[in-house]
Structure formats: structure tokens, C-alpha cells
Amino acid sequence: ELFICHGIPGNVRGNVGFNPELKETALHSIKGNYLFGGHSHIQEVYKLGDKTYMNPGCLGYTLDGIGRHVQFAIICGSDDEWKIELHSMPYAVESFLQDFNESGLDELGFVLNRAVKKTIITGKNHVLECVTEVEKETGLPPHLVPEDVWEKVAQKLGV
């Protein structure tokens, strides 16, 4: 009855946030009536006929334009139907960011670490924004882009 995956069935990185039509394709591909997926970091319940797609959201890296909270779902069910409750609540972002700062990761991640922190605070995907801008400006895959280019992009985007 339940199909649980990270992205969509057969594609761990299948992101219905970027490709909403993937929800319908994925729902048609399962035998049961419930598909619980993720990867988009966007909390939702979507119904298509007698089938339901649910994404519980994200624990701290929410992409909803609000930020500073965790999202989760409580699912209760029987043989006939599953009841889905979506929840969102604030968490100790400042404490998390302090631990992040003290971890030493900033010496390894530079711009992308700052983008992650800003995303956690704002709920806007600053990591994707930085990666997209770097690719647009250089035509290179992100892992080949020199750090000085990343820094210029970060300044341009306010990261």
C-alpha cells in the first residue's frame, strides 16, 4: 500500500519541486495508493484520483521561503486509508549555526557553507542560486570553478 523513497521511484534525485509532472508519473508507476517521497525539501500532500503523494518536508533545511523551522508528518492508518498530518515548528537555529561555525567546516566549504546557513535562516535555496549563477557565468561544472569566482558570485547574490 505504501511506497517510500527519497526522490521518486527509481530516481533518488527525482525532484518534484523542480518537475511537478514527476508526481503524476511517479504515482502512476506504483501499485499502491500512497507514495511518500522527499528530496525537494518542500512539504506537501498531492492527490491524483485515488493516489496520494506526500513529502513530509525537511528537518531544518526547509525550502519554503520562511526558514528557521523543521517540518515533518504524522501518518496514521488502517487497511482502508492513511491520514496524513503535516507539521512545522521552530527549532534552535542560532544554536545550530553556532555549532556549525565552531565545527571548522567553513574552512572547507566557503561560499556553499554560507549559502547553506542563509538557506536555513530564510528558507530560500541560496545553494542552488549560487550553483546556477556560477554555471551561467563560467559554463563550467561547479567543482571546476575556482574559489575566487565563487566569491564574486556570493558578493553579487549577497551570500
What do you see in this structure?
- With 159 residues, the protein is an alpha/beta fold.
- A hairpin with a 2-residue loop joins β3 and β4.
- α2 runs antiparallel to α3 and α4 packs across α5.
- The chain is globular.
- It starts with a strand and ends with a helix.
Task: Summarize the SSE layout with pairings.
Elements: E1 2-4, H1 21-29, E2 34-36, E3 44-48, E4 51-55, E5 69-77, E6 82-90, H2 93-102, H3 106-122, H4 126-138, H5 147-157
Parallel strand pairs: 1-2, 2-4
Antiparallel strand pairs: 3-4, 5-6
Helix pairs in contact: 2-3, 4-5
Question: What would the keywords be for this entry?
Answer:
two-stranded antiparallel ribbon; 6 strands; alpha/beta; 159 residues; single chain; 21% strand
Low-confidence runs of at least 5 consecutive residues: none
Helix content: 25-40%
Helix and strand content put the structural class at alpha/beta
Name the shape in a single word. Answer: globular
Mean pLDDT: 92
Order of helices and strands: EHEEEEEHHHH
Tally of extended strands? 6
Whole-angstrom Rg: 18 Å
Distance between the termini: 44 Å
Discrete helix count? 5
Largest sheet: 4 strands, mixed
Strand content: 15-25%
What order do the strands of the largest sheet run in, or round the barrel if closed?
Answer: 1-2-4-3
